[in-house]
Amino acid sequence: MRRKALRAAFPCTLPIFAGFWFLALAYGILMNKNGFPFVYPMLMSMLIFGGSLEFITASMLLSKFSPLAALTVTILVQARHLFYGITMLDRYKGMGWKKLFLIFGMCDETFSINYTARIPDGVDRGWFMLFVTVLDYAYWVSGATIGGLVGAHLQFNTKGLDFVMTAMFVTIFMNQWMQEKKKYTGIIGLGATALCLVIFGPDRFMIPSMALILLLLAIFRNPIALAAEEKEVDHT
Amino acid sequence: MSPMTLPQQIITIAICAGGTMLTRFLPFLIFSSDRPTPKFIQYLGKALPCAVFGMLVVYCLKDVSPLSGSHGVPEAIAIAVTAGLHLWKKQMLLSIAGGTIVYMLLIQVVF
Fold it and tell me: Taking a contact as any Cβ pair under 8 Å apart, which residues of chain A between 13 and 72 contact chain B?
């Protein structure tokens, strides 16, 4: 049962392997160049396991000690996980001991795969999602550790490889978009976030974006819920 | 090197890790499995995903500036290639690999 789930989960994580290794290596190298031994990127990637925040924590460690600022930045940068949790409430229900690690390791990419993957018949859902989570976690931690170990000795032109994450989210978004008959929620997500990016700039747009998305979803609850029901009727 | 002492470094990293876990675990702690989830939260669980993936696409592109550098042209071309491949073949890995290779070629060779 486990082997079957692993065989189904592994191909789904390949784009993440490429993206995570590149980003985590870059992160480990950065830490190494800033004078931190490899245990720093290793432990930070194991404990925090959130790419963008780890880069921010790296710069925090190079400035004055400020615990309150650290907490504020963490909540602001990571608040989007609240949305993932709300979405996965039902799917992670009844997962027993697996649930703890599923939630602990729920980064953007793992959430995306676990939410969207079509798990083949006969494959255990719990094990499938656990393997996706564990594999993604292993890619990130190993990349950061190796980056911290080899540091600046690495020489090859990987410029632009980080686009693999953007491309992955584009295809996942398209899959979701094509499933929706009425495109309300997709338009809200793209539009609200783009609008807030223009107004608030790249460092402060995520919280306003999330607030605006919630507000719009609340305002247009009736038409959106109606469209979702139609979709469900179509499926049966 | 860090201007912080080792305990200060440990506290900083612990806050970042603890804060992250708070955002991941909070919905599961508030809406526990023995009580029924409120209707509005159930609705959000269904309506959020597509909005969230739209949000993530924009989030990935947040540092692209249309007014300076390469004006976001390589990103626009690479996304068009990714989307085009995906509409044509509907193979996620192919779309992702195609778009990424085009992007790498564009910024390493052309721009």
Answer: 14-15, 18, 34-36, 43-44, 47-50, 53-54, 57, 60-65, 67, 70-71
Alpha-carbon span A204 to A212, nearest angstrom: 14
The tally of domains found in chain B comes to: 2
CB-CB neighbors (< 8 A) of B20 in chain A: 48-50, 53, 74, 78, 81
What is the 8-class DSSP label of residue B3?
S
Query: How many C-beta atoms lie closer than 10 Å to residue A102's C-beta?
Result: 24
Q: How far apart are CA A189 and CA A210, in angstroms?
A: 9
* Pair B85, B99: CB distance under 8 Å: yes
Domain boundary among B45, B60, B75: B60
Taking the C-alpha atoms of residue A103 and residue A105, their distance in angstroms, rounded to an integer, is 5
Q: What would the pLDDT profile of A26-39 be if each residue is shown by its tens digit?
A: 888 878 878 899 99
For chain A, give every domain's residue range: 2-161, 180-236
Q: A161-205, pLDDT tens digit by residue? A: 778 878 888 998 998 898 887 889 999 999 999 999 999 998 888
Q: Which pLDDT tens digit goes with each residue over A53-100?
A: 888 888 889 888 989 888 988 987 888 899 999 999 989 988 989 999
Mark whether B50 and B26 lie in a shared domain: yes
Chain B residues within 8 A of A224 when measuring between CB atoms? 43, 47
Asked whether the ipTM of the predicted complex exceeds the cut of 0.90, the reply is no
